[in-house]
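Justification of computing resources. Each target in the renewal requires a structure prediction run like the one illustrated here; the chain below, 410 residues long, is used simply to show the kind of job we budget for.
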Amino acid sequence: MDYIRGVIFLILLLFTSSCSKTDRKEPFRVIDVVGSVGSEKIINLSEIAEFVEYIPLETTLNSLFLGAGNGGIFYEGNNIFVKNKLELLVFDNKGKFIRKISRAGRGPGEYLSLGVHIPSGGNVIYIHNIDKHLEYDREGNFISERSFRDVGNIQAFTAINKIGENLYAIEPFDCKDNAVILVDSSLVTVGRVTMPSNFINNSKTLSNGMPGSVAQWRGTFYNYNDSLRITWFYDDYVVSIGNNSTGPDTLYRFEYGPYRLSPGKDDPRRITGDLIRLHSYMNESRRFLFMQFQMGSLAKKPRVMYPVGKYGQDRTFSVNINSAYYDKSTGSFVFMEQPRVGQFGFNEDFHGGPAVWPLYISSDNYMISLVNITELRHHVAENKVSEELRALAATLSDQDNPVVIKVKLK
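Resulting structure tokens:
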């Protein structure tokens, strides 16, 4: 049955009729999720990393920000970039504020929304608006823009990803059957990636047959080097689109075994029962995949967290979500137990700092995360940490910008 599902999925993912099944460049690897159920354990950061560095970001009137999640912070070309509403703040690799890129507006070189991708090296900054793709140099000078309003009679897009020099992967806001439309630099449509049947069937459960109305449930798109990775929360596969692709390559399949969602039968929003599904975003380094899973009733220990802004207080809540990572070099998959209440990810055993989970992976293999000052100061006060980290925390106030955690991965 799994083989049949896989064949159906690959057929759905083929581009136009000019592409054939032989366009797949490599067989996918199976990630044994089901085999690790019930075996969660605390993982030290040193098992996947060489060292960790804490970088306070300079706090000025022009650089102040509250925080950034996945898709809101980047590290390329020795610069740290942080999205702050419709602005992009730029810091050097020691945290000194360099500049602010702010081009909000309706005119040439301006944008009304801020989706960011920074290619390897950080020499160019890509920003996508609801219907156009803009390029700036690393100093924030406008280079060019390209409108996609007339592509496929679609008026708005969730994201526009430039892949290499001549390929754009466009995610329609009203996705319907198309997850991605591929166009070249002349705005000629060269292919499409269709929604997998599992997502379409689950969408019917959620939205009375209107997949576009549940775009927020559809999955995660992330850049890895010069390719775009796509995975759906209610399906089993991770696929990739590269600059020279004639079709999407299927890279990985999650093996859920008896805990797999049954499309059209199981409500994919369920958070109880013996079901597993991908939760939240993914990140990928040269050696590792980082992901989280909604575990339903299968979580050995629920994750216990504090409400936002209430770190260290008595009030907590629990969720049946596990972090996990996959080692591409060994094929091993590990479910992770949270190191302590209020934190999740890898136990920071270099300096005794707070747990680390990636918000971004750079092209030169650094994991980037953030910790706000209140959390950091509380952690230092309650735990045994290095003198270096304790001294750093003593220099910070609760009004300062968050601290970047920069981890060199193996």
